[in-house]
Amino acid sequence: MKDPIEVLLDEHKIITSAIDLANHADELWLKNEAVYEIIIRKLISFFRIYADLYHHHKEEKILFPEMQKKNELLQDGVLKEMFNNHE
Question: Is the pTM of this model over 0.70?
Answer without folding.
Answer: yes
